[in-house]
Amino acid sequence: MSQSIVGASTPQVTAREKVMGRAQYAGDIKLAGMLHAKVLRSPHPHARIVGIDTSAAKALAGVRLVVTGCDTPTRLWGPHRKEQRILAAGVVRHVGEEVAAVVAVSEEIARDALDLIRVEYEQLPALLSPEAALADGAPEIHAGTRNIGHEMHIERGDVDAGFAAAAAVYEATYDMHSQYPGYLEPMASVATQDGNGRLTVYASTQSVFLARSRMAEALDRPASTIRVVQATTGGGFGAKIVEENNSLICAFLATKLDRPVRLVNNRLEDFQGARASVPAKVWLRMGLSADGMIVAKDVRITAECGAFSGLAGDVMHVSAMRSDNMHRVTNVRSHAVLAYTNNPPRGAFRGFGGQQMQFPLNCHLTVLAGMIGMDPIEVHKRNAIGRGETSVHGWQIGSTGMQECLEMTRQAIGWDAKRNAPRGTGTRRRGVGIAAAMHVSGNRTLGNWDGSTILLKLNEDGRVMLQTSECDMGQGANTMLSQICAQEMGIPLSHVTVMVPDTDTSPFCLGSLASRVTIISGNAVLRAAREAKQKVLALAAEKFGVEMASLSFADGRISVPGQPDKSAMLAEIARLHIFRHGGEGIHVRATYDAPTVMHDASYYGNIAPAYSFAAQAVEVEVDTCTGRVTVIDSFVADDCGKAINPLAVHGQTHGATVQAIGWTLYEHLRYEDGRLQNGNFADYTMATADALPMLRTDLVESNDPNGPFGAKGASETAILPGAAAIANAVHHAIGVRIHSLPITPEKVLAALRERHETEKETAHA
Amino acid sequence: MSQSIVGASTPQVTAREKVMGRAQYAGDIKLAGMLHAKVLRSPHPHARIVGIDTSAAKALAGVRLVVTGCDTPTRLWGPHRKEQRILAAGVVRHVGEEVAAVVAVSEEIARDALDLIRVEYEQLPALLSPEAALADGAPEIHAGTRNIGHEMHIERGDVDAGFAAAAAVYEATYDMHSQYPGYLEPMASVATQDGNGRLTVYASTQSVFLARSRMAEALDRPASTIRVVQATTGGGFGAKIVEENNSLICAFLATKLDRPVRLVNNRLEDFQGARASVPAKVWLRMGLSADGMIVAKDVRITAECGAFSGLAGDVMHVSAMRSDNMHRVTNVRSHAVLAYTNNPPRGAFRGFGGQQMQFPLNCHLTVLAGMIGMDPIEVHKRNAIGRGETSVHGWQIGSTGMQECLEMTRQAIGWDAKRNAPRGTGTRRRGVGIAAAMHVSGNRTLGNWDGSTILLKLNEDGRVMLQTSECDMGQGANTMLSQICAQEMGIPLSHVTVMVPDTDTSPFCLGSLASRVTIISGNAVLRAAREAKQKVLALAAEKFGVEMASLSFADGRISVPGQPDKSAMLAEIARLHIFRHGGEGIHVRATYDAPTVMHDASYYGNIAPAYSFAAQAVEVEVDTCTGRVTVIDSFVADDCGKAINPLAVHGQTHGATVQAIGWTLYEHLRYEDGRLQNGNFADYTMATADALPMLRTDLVESNDPNGPFGAKGASETAILPGAAAIANAVHHAIGVRIHSLPITPEKVLAALRERHETEKETAHA
């Protein structure tokens, strides 16, 4: 077969219905008799619920149900720690926590009814920072936790000896804030319970099976009584993996009413209800030898999960050790503590903790490179782990394009010409910065399984139906799976249909997270397509009375070269596979579980079948009058193994780049006394087109041996280097280093003033 | 395992939603933006469409679309002969044929708009009987057919020699009318085309895959672009297998509008649009030896398919030869002709042509038994084919309970006491009659495949999801499959969920026809459950470090007897099957294709894996003043191999018995010039409770070697003997034999008058 389908830039197979406005997002779904829900949230970061009076709300015309925490199942749920109820009962632990829900004949009436609910709170002391929460004698947000949600120590090699041998040592503390996922589609669900008591939930989700497990737990009913169907999903970015409450509340309300219920977050509700990324303070000390080798690294992380731990411990785990694996380091030490606070809960986010260490690490690396008089790209390249090597934590690197990414980046940004001297005139100063990063493609640590099962059905018209539970949230999973299938089956892309994930009928999969879908589910599709093709060829060989090896299969036709009478369309063989003695439809199941190794108690293992790499260079212009930083050029080199769909990889890389720029310069969740002040897109300023340069990306195809057609996870890596590249470029431009994100004009001006004062003092001294 | 689930009388697993009124029949489905369709039908049995003016209809406020035959695809469809379009184009061939369709915002407006469509017809000569259609020089309804839809000849042995050796020979012609299927739910569909151009049709159907094939053909688009989902279905009785136009029209309209469209037949429309059973005239000559053996049988059948042939040829095929297989006959001859007429098309119906021969055969057998002075039960028993024997047409009888059925019937009705003399006094005369019949359990002849595939998924809570495309139309398929699965897996019935047939996700199956589901799909479930259990046991053995053989599996728990620490719930093993290295969900596919043999060109073969038998005795009271015949007692013995769910078998047997009584005495489609005169339940008098005796049934469990737990098709056989049993009883009661159905008071009085005249003449002579 030609490689014309895999590797071709292909519009998304889901595009047509989206551009026509006909895709059914959860909020678009209309079921007969459907009611509308709204949720009342806590205005206090920490308070005891003394009493709730719902009588006026219940009396409002059009209201069908009002529930509070006391009505919800008492079983606690959580991805790890079981600490949440569907609605708060007895105590609220953060502003925005769900306290009551109303169902009414319209969204407007439901919203009006919220105003009629009287909740009497007794405020409790609020712990609004990790420092406060971890202070001796602080009250416990969850009893018995000492306000520690998770804690880990990792140490390998001899860190102290490493530092002793270092030519340069630098230490600093970095402060990284929380980022709202900012997807186009806020959380939304429609739930309905049928006459047989089975609950169906249409959800905006990254994983229907994780959603089902969570609902089974939170609703305290068997998983088999619940069906989760993925609605068209407008972005997830980690926040729709498993930590959202929207679908739980919606599902619960439907079970109480036996009527379909719709619950759609408006943007403010989504800012309040969705889990933003995990903020972290990182103290990093790192040493470089005179020849640029990283000889020691010591890290202390204080991450904050807010009121509930969710997946934040896993995120912190990644911050604590993932970046170590991109370099040939041997002496590393991490101590990481996750603090409960009375801020809103935090959780999974694109990059999954990677950026919380890549920002410190890449800033450090540039500083240290400067200290030994070496180009930071050279430092990265000297330390970069190679193909076939095993990292300090046991990761086996089957492929890496890190060297190529760095080299490509260097060329693209004009590094050598620009790096020696900052450019610009007057108050507009320009500088360049680079950073590199790595990411996983899959992750065994979710339950010692990182598999994906595909069902492939060859219809009687020779076309293929694929069933998976890996969710397309817009990132292009369905297109990628279709391409692999069409390529392997030798049929047009349009002859493959990927069905909607549905826990009733789809095979068990973990879902779209950890950049796992391309390599894991892609391999499963490859296996399924091969098995289906084998069945087709075996039957054709029988029909034609020839050996399978003598068959040719191309463009949907099976033939015996040179024997024109021995030829059949795929559809004909598909029908014959059924309509014969002992026949059956061609219906293939294939599973790929990554050939990885679960980490041991010391976190040593090989948790992903492949690892992706990226490098980014930016050029910034800093206005020293206003402090404004503008990214005027950005180039990302993304090592995705093989771009199944280059168009999609570029698109995802662009998105990740923008999200990194937003985190670094613009986006900032502002709280006062635990209350979000800017839960809207006017005040929470995500980067829009006018704030961005023409984004440039290119791909490195390192051809991973475990990857389908060599492919591994694409583009999630691209969110990781941005912040450090910008901070490094700012430093290059104006000579000040900002350790705290976001890099606001105020911080830039403050740093410039501070440097000016220092210089004056130095001059006077 | 105990036999506590299979064999237990179990309420239908679909009962709860039905009794709560929450089951979603197609007509109940409401989709957002849904429009409503109505269909204009031909008032003429045969006419050329000169012109159609739809302008006024289109101009009516609320009308969204008006289409006529010219708008529909030109490709012709049909189960065998391709002779229909979705709407008639150019010519109409029967009253009720679909000529135009309107879609509007309400059903009422759509109906109003029909009145505004002006169709100019030029009437053509109508052929309203097979005699007229088959007459020399008759115009052809379909060009090149000589008005013959199908014709077959079968001859085995030496029929003429058989007659020569006969002690008694009787010949007569029987006239059998068409019966409306009379299900609770008329045809109904909802269709919608999504933004990706895929069409979904929610249909009231017996076979989603046959429906999809038919739609692909009629709509002239690839099958993979169509999804057919079975809505809750309120009875099928054969009419919802594949011949209905409702879903085709609805689907077509949805593709034109890109809006959901609902088309629900009202009862009159269903009388006009649904295919009723195939009427037939049967000339039968049969000879008995002095010892009661059937030595020769000669049959000539003229069946009528009406305007389109559909499945009527298959029905006639059954009439022509199926009944031969219940006896040890060797000399048989059939010549059967299917005539096109300008009456409405006829097709599949419960019993599928069996009753059109069992009525003549069983009447004949009673007459001939009388001629040689033998009890007809004795004649049946002497001739009855035995277990292990091969019938004249090659059918291999793996099990038969015919002898037991006859004996049980004899006892139950009090045959020996009642048969010698009719009872009753004055004008109320009572008589008894019996008949016996056989039916297939499955049928390979639909495409040399009679298989069924089951997907079984074991969820993480240890519960099972089953996917099949065999449709439950109320007959209890889902309950039966659940029972077999629960029994074999050793789990409670409530832990099995059978999902809705859906061509996108369900495995390919033929559907619910030919009494095939219990034996075919039941076996597939049995295989799937065994395979799933094997997977569970293999993993448990590995986990416990023991041999599989030492494991015990009962009540959802796997354990090692005597080692209480080695025990796990099914759910735990199901989870472990995923969450381990190389794991995957337990997801099993199993197919059962019956071990049968396709018949050859002479119709010799073994087409079903099992054959079911039944016998019925009735007692009637005939009012010689009014001619009214009342069934005052009915007993049916049904050989179903093994009753998986006795409650359901009894229920289905009752239903079949009532339908047979209705056909024999009450139901009568009345036409004038090809126009139905009584398309409603006031004038088309199906038997209601006050017209029926207390129905009695009992089961014979002949334990078929191919059957799951010995089961084979139940209860369809029970529709076959009723007409003859009643006719025989009428003869017994009043000495006249009615050869023409229905046995109306008029016919009875006419026959009594005729006999009286004959007696008078004889007395005078």
UniProtKB/TrEMBL annotation, chains A, B:
Chain segments annotated as transmembrane: none
Top EC category: oxidoreductase
Record EC number: 1.3.7.9
Domain named Aldehyde oxidase/xanthine dehydrogenase a/b hammerhead: residues: 20-125
GO molecular function: iron ion binding; oxidoreductase activity
UniProt superkingdom: Bacteria
Keyword line: Oxidoreductase
InterPro entries documented for this protein: Ald_Oxase/Xan_DH_a/b (IPR000674), Ald_Oxase/Xan_DH_a/b_sf (IPR036856), Ald_Oxase/xanthine_DH-like (IPR016208), AldOxase/xan_DH_MoCoBD1 (IPR008274), AldOxase/xan_DH_MoCoBD2 (IPR046867), AldOxase/xan_DH_Mopterin-bd_sf (IPR037165)
Protein name: 4-hydroxybenzoyl-CoA reductase subunit alpha
Source species of the chain: Cupriavidus yeoncheonensis
Lineage, broadest ranks: Bacteria, Pseudomonadati, Pseudomonadota, Betaproteobacteria, Burkholderiales
